[in-house]
Design a protein that fits this description.
alpha+beta, endopeptidase fold (from Nostoc punctiforme), 10-stranded antiparallel beta sheet, 6-stranded antiparallel beta sheet
Length: 329
């Protein structure tokens, strides 16, 4: 195991590994530019109860006066109320302004609103107001103007709010959330000898709780450089919705051979395949999370001949680039 990871780390600095070093640099730059510490919906163990706490906490502040910039019971503005309620009820620290909260949330249709979701309005300006949905067409918010100021209840059916409505968003998962995450990906392998080394994919299921995803995946790949097909079955651990590590045994079909002159044998064991995957950026299509992911993979091959560090590193180490899909239920 330790020799394998030493080869992975040191092999990147071997001269023929320049294409991999370049690709790693590009992935690292994009990762730094696109990383975010958190994003909605924020994983919650019991989302139905969490939503009840959100609404109950908001109602406890009903009647508190409006105060621009306020985030405590002495006075709230609209986004300050949302900020305080989520921090107090579910321990989630949201961005401070309505526009930032709009950017943070997971977009949802009005027909999918549940108590505890956020409502956004174009009032004094675009996305200038935010409130917390209570259910049955009502929401609670900190009003800065109108017949009653401060933390009040209003109805979406009121003409003013119906015209000003700009969208809705989810911060915690839906009440019926089970915590299961189904995922899949398809992409290419990148190598040092052959830049487009092969084709790879994955399919898996994981359970998400407290922000961590634990699951199993099949990660089939065809390796054109070695001329074999490999089917790893790995245990995967998602540290957040960007970074994942995985390792597991693999079945290899074919006779791995580098340049037709250096044969290899696929070695078994739990660390037959190990890797790190980072999703560079995400977007949503038809209710699914889509993304572009890069990965660094170590496949355990043993040379049938004498040791050759450079060629062995080329055989064992590759990068991957793929389009990923995720669906959470």
């Amino acid at each position: 195991m330790f020799k394998g990871f030493a080869a992975l780390l040191l092999g990147i600095y071997y001269e023929p590994m320049k294409p991999i070093r370049r690709a790693l640099g590009i992935i690292a730059l994009i990762a730094c530019a696109t990383y975010s510490a958190a994003e909605a919906p924020v994983p919650t163990a019991a989302p139905k109860k969490a939503r009840e706490r959100i609404v109950d906490t908001a109602l406890s502040y009903e009647g508190v006066p409006y105060l621009y910039g306020g985030i405590n019971p002495n006075g709230f503005d609209c986004s300050g109320l949302v900020y305080r309620v989520f921090l107090q009820s579910v321990g989630v620290e949201l961005p401070r302004t309505a526009r930032e909260q709009f950017a943070f949330r997971e977009p949802i249709d009005k027909g999918k609103l549940q108590p505890g979701d956020l409502l956004f309005f174009n009032t004094t300006g675009p996305l200038a107001h935010v409130g917390i949905y209570m259910g049955e067409g009502k929401f609670i918010h900190a009003a800065s103007d109108g017949p009653t100021r401060g933390v009040i209840e209003s109805a979406l059916s009121e003409s003013y709010w119906a015209k000003a409505y700009a969208g809705a968003g989810r911060i915690v998962p839906p009440a019926e959330y089970l915590g299961l995450v189904f995922s899949g990906s398809l992409g290419v392998s990148i190598g040092a000898r052959d830049f487009l080394r092969g084709i790879r994919g994955s399919v898996g299921v994981a359970y998400r709780i407290f922000g961590v995803e634990s699951g199993i995946e099949l990660r089939p790949e065809y390796d054109g450089t070695l001329g074999d097909f490999r089917l790893p079955a790995v245990l995967a651990l998602g540290l957040d919705r960007h970074l994942k590590i995985y390792a597991g045994p693999a079945v290899t079909l074919g006779s791995p051979n580098l340049d037709g002159t250096r044969p290899y044998e696929a070695s078994g064991g739990f660390f037959a395949t190990a890797g790190i995957e980072y999703t560079l950026f995400r977007f949503r299509v038809a209710g699914m999370d889509c993304g572009l992911a890069g990965e660094l993979v170590y496949n355990r091959y043993v040379s049938s001949g004498s040791a050759d560090f450079g060629n062995d590193a080329i055989a064992r180490i590759r990068l991957g680039l793929s389009v990923s899909l995720r669906k959470t239920i």
